[in-house]
């Protein structure tokens, strides 16, 4: 950050360079390949100021919405030849954008909204979003969709994560469904899904963004939403393997600021009652599951799938999914080919790497505690032996 500030003093723009209907474009001189739990930040690039460009630059295929702040939307231009939409090669969107960036482009909010006003399709009818609890097959799910080539698949775009974090953090003073928040949600999704004549499938980042289930349809009334879950006895150890013991513990320590206001008093009680990292992490996953349960109780139509059902009867699952998303059943062989691919190949999340860690087993007491909290605080019924949710409405349940 210090280097960035020095660099901007030397090469940075003058106030007169900020033209009202233009975007600012920076050449990247050094790309700091560094990641942390909260995602990537534009300060990880050392940038040389270049100049203003026409805002239509964001229409270009290799220009990706990367992040946003209160003043600007931040885009990355990835190098030509990088198949950034191919999630078999690039499973996580923000890693891809960061690793292959050649320019940073910033667009002020009012300019981006002016660009959006030319759109006719603004109700989300060409968008489907997959919410999940994490470590439950969501990347496999996205690969299945990708293989049909019927959707542009966006796998974990960081602006969706940013939405989840900032709306929850501000929920103490600003209702999450406030007009300004819904306007921001609508703007972010439409900027991500910039081609009106194409369909988009978004796999959201799973880190404490479940409350978006309560909000996205209010901003985009025709959006289709799906929910994916898995037995928690598999999810919790998988998160520990992925994050490592220290980060896994750290996530449970910073969670207070990342969950909506309505869950914070319960979280304080959980923290006071237990020092078990698995119990605390289980509560955070239940916070991810609860919004889906509430939406279905309120009468919304939203399909839920479990990882267990997907792998038990692959073809039946694909047929049901195709029917729900209006995908031609003739594309079934292409979809089934995704099951032979390690969807996390090349990442620290790959089966090869995570398989090297010892299996972690939750104790009987921990499972009973999680089951009790799920039932008494959230109304979610979990099967004791594996902590699988058994009372999710509208759930595809073959083979569970």
List keywords for this structure.
400 residues, 41% helix, 5-stranded antiparallel β-sheet, globular, alpha/beta, 15 helices, 6-stranded parallel β-sheet
Q: In words, what does this structure look like?
A:
By secondary structure, the chain is an alpha/beta fold. 41% of the residues lie in helices and 17% in strands. It has 15 helices and eleven strands. It has helices at 2-11, 93-99, 109-116, 138-148, 158-169, 179-192, 216-219, 232-254, 261-273, 277-297, 307-312, 314-325, 332-336, 351-354, 364-378; strands spanning 22-31, 45-54, 63-68, 72-78, 101-108, 127-132, 152-155, 200-203, 224-229, 303-306, 395-396. The strands form two sheets. Strands 7-8-6-9-10-11 form a six-stranded parallel sheet. Strand 3 and strand 4 form a beta hairpin. Helix 5 packs antiparallel against helix 6 (179-192), helix 8 crosses helix 10 (277-297) and helix 10 runs parallel beside helix 15 (364-378). It is globular, with a radius of gyration of 21 Å. The mean pLDDT is 89.
